[in-house]
Design brief:
By secondary structure, the protein is mostly helical. It has helices at residues 6-12, 26-34, 47-58, 63-72, 91-95, 142-207, and strands at residues 77-81, 101-102, 110-111, 131-135. 52% of the residues lie in helices and 7% in strands. Strand 2 (101-102) and strand 3 form a beta hairpin. Helix 1 (6-12) crosses helix 2. The protein binds iron/sulfur cluster (3 copies). One iron/sulfur cluster (SF4) is lined by residues 81, 86-92, 103, 109, 125-128, 130-131.
C-alpha cells in the first residue's frame, strides 16, 4: 500500500466524527489507515464516494467493496429535538462533538441544523428519547462535500479546544483551592503553636 500522510487521508473523510468506523473520530481512523491497520471501507457516512477516493489515494482495489458499501452507507441527516418533550438536561450538548445544540439547564434545546453533522451521538444519552434524525439533501458537488467537512472539522476542533481550556481552568482552580486550604491550615497550626508557647511562658513566669 502507498504511504500517504494522515493529514491527506483525513482530508478525504467527512468529519462527521460519528465513530461508526470504530475509531474515536475521523483523524484516528485516518491514522489507522496510514499505518495500514484499518481497511478503507469503514466510513459509512462517507460511503462509496469516500471509499473510492481512499482507494485512488492509496492505490487500493475497491471494486469488491462497492456493493457492500452501497447497502451500508449512511445518507446525510440532521438531528431534530421534540421541544415539547425536552427537559433541558443538557446531556445532548455534552455529547455533541461539534456544538450543534443550543439550550441551557431546564430550558428546551434546539439543534442548529447548519452545524449538525448527523453523527447521532446525541440520541443515546437523551433520557426523554426526544431526538430523532431527519434525512437531508446530499451535497451536490465535491466542493460542497469539502465545505461540509471543513465546517464540521472547524466546529469539532473549536469544541475540543474549549473543553481542554475548561478542564485546564478547573484543574487550576482546584490546585489554587488546595494551596489556599494548605496555607490556612498552616497558619492555624502556627497560631496554635504560638498560643501554646505563650501559655507555657505565662505558667513559667507565674512559678518564678
Ligand atoms: S465520519 Fe467516517 S471516518 Fe469520521 S468518525 Fe464517522 S465513520 Fe469514522
Ligand atoms: S446535534 Fe446530534 S447528530 Fe447533530 S452533530 Fe450534534 S450530536 Fe451529532
Ligand atoms: S438530552 Fe434530550 S431531554 Fe436532555 S436536553 Fe437534550 S434533547 Fe432535551
Amino acid at each position: 500500500m502507498k504511504k500517504i500522510s494522515v493529514q491527506v487521508i483525513d482530508q478525504c473523510l467527512p468529519q462527521t466524527q460519528c465513530g461508526l468506523c470504530e475509531y474515536e473520530g475521523c483523524k484516528p481512523y485516518a491514522e489507522a489507515i496510514s499505518l495500514g491497520e484499518a481497511n478503507i471501507n469503514k466510513c459509512l457516512p462517507g460511503g462509496i464516494r469516500v471509499l473510492e477516493q481512499l482507494g485512488t489515494l492509496l492505490d487500493k482495489e475497491t471494486e469488491h467493496l462497492i456493493e457492500d458499501m452501497r447497502l451500508k452507507q449512511k445518507a446525510p441527516s440532521v438531528a431534530v429535538i421534540d421541544e415539547q418533550l425536552c427537559i433541558g438536561c443538557v446531556k445532548c450538548i455534552a455529547a455533541c462533538p461539534v456544538d450543534a445544540i443550543i439550550g441551557t439547564g431546564k430550558k428546551m434545546h434546539t439543534v442548529l441544523a447548519a452545524d449538525c453533522t448527523g453523527c447521532e451521538l446525541c440520541i443515546e444519552p437523551c433520557p426523554m428519547d426526544c431526538i430523532s434524525m431527519q434525512l437531508v439533501d446530499k451535497p451536490d458537488t465535491e466542493i460542497e462535500w469539502q465545505a461540509f467537512a471543513a465546517h464540521a472539522k472547524k466546529n469539532y476542533i473549536r469544541k475540543k479546544e474549549r473543553i481542554a481550556a475548561q478542564t485546564h481552568n478547573s484543574r487550576q482552580t482546584h490546585k489554587q483551592q488546595v494551596q489556599a486550604n494548605t496555607s490556612s491550615e498552616e497558619a492555624a497550626k502556627l497560631a496554635k503553636q504560638a498560643y501554646i508557647k505563650a501559655a507555657l511562658e505565662r505558667v513559667k513566669k507565674g512559678r518564678s
